[in-house]
Structures are given as C-alpha cells and as structure tokens.
C-alpha cells in the first residue's frame, strides 16, 4: 500500500471514529434533555405523552391534598389560564406552598394527571423560574386579550 493510501485510510478512520463519538454524545444528550411546558401548553396537547418533561406555574389555592399514606400529595399547577393536576410521592421542599411558584418534573399519564418525580419550589420571595414567569405572563396576556375580544363582541351585539 502506498503511503498516500495509508494516509487516506488513516484520515477516513479518524473521521469515522469522530462521527461515531459525536453520534453517541448526541444520543446521550437527547435522552437526558427535558423540556419545560406551561399548563396551557399541556392542555393544548403540545407536551409529550411518552417522555419526561417539566411543568411549571403556581400551586392553585386550596388544591393541596395530602393522601392517607402521608407521603403522596395531589395539587394543581396553574398559569392562571389552564390548570393541570399533579401527583407526587415524596417529601416536598420546605418552600412549597399554595399560591407560590413551582416546577415539577415527570410524565403526563393517560388519565391527564401529571405524575411528578421531582418538585422544585422557588427559593426566595422574588424568584420564579424564568420559564414559569414567561408562561404566567403569556397566559395573563391571552386571558386579557380574550376578555377584550368578548367585550368588543358584546358591544357589537347590543342595539344602539
């Protein structure tokens, strides 16, 4: 084999090894990637049903229910427009309260309940995860816009 062919084979082998390594790294990254969805997006069926994802918003007032086993809790996460029931078995963070920001990671089951594996609460009075804050702001804007449209439609319907 000529030295030229040896060099070409060496370069081709190096490129193949780099390609395989890149594919393995990207595959590992993809399987560990967790996306954030708001309750409105979950209600609009934008969230995956077969993968783990994060949902965030506010814990709805009066929705926290502790189950008889002492470990399992049910609560509702809302972005003020839509709400999603959450079931979590474990110890809740100390800062977890109704009316406060929360991010839960888990899967949405066929019954429409989000089964959380992990629950994170905000860490001080001013902090809310950016994704949750954006989702709440979008929901407020959408609700305000729908109310404005409703008022305009009613104004058109009333006789002058």
Task: Explain this structure.
- The chain has one domain: Beta Barrel (OB fold (Dihydrolipoamide Acetyltransferase, E2P)), CATH 2.40.50.
- Helix content is 39%, strand content 26%.
- It has helices at 3-32, 39-43, 130-157; strands spanning 36-37, 53-59, 65-66, 72-78, 83-89, 101-108, 114-121.
- Strands 2-4-5-7-6 form a five-stranded mixed beta barrel.
- Strand 4 (72-78) and strand 5 (83-89) form a beta hairpin.
- The protein is elongated, with a radius of gyration of 24 Å.
Distance between the termini: 95 Å
Average pLDDT rating: 84
Overall 3D shape: elongated
CATH superfamily: Nucleic acid-binding proteins
* Second CATH tier, the architecture: Beta Barrel
Name the structural class.
alpha+beta
The parts where pLDDT drops under 50 for at least 5 residues are: none
Number of helices: 3
Spatial sequence of strands, sheet with the most strands: 2-4-5-7-6
């Amino acid at each position: 084999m000529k030295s030229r062919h040896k060099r070409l084979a060496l370069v081709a082998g190096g490129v193949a090894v780099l390609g395989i390594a890149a594919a393995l790294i990207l595959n590992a990254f993809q399987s560990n990637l967790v996306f954030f969805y708001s309750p409105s997006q979950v209600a609009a069926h934008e969230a995956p049903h077969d993968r783990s994802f994060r949902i965030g918003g506010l814990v709805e007032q009066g929705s926290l229910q502790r189950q008889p086993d002492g470990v399992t809790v049910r609560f509702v996460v809302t972005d003020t427009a839509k709400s999603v029931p959450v079931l979590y078995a474990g110890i809740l963070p100390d800062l977890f309260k109704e009316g406060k920001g929360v991010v839960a990671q888990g899967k949405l089951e066929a019954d429409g309940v989000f089964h959380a594996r992990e629950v994170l609460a905000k860490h001080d009075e001013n902090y809310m995860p950016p994704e949750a804050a954006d989702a709440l702001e979008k929901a407020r804007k959408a609700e305000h816009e729908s109310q404005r449209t409703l008022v305009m439609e009613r104004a058109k319907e009333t006789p002058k």
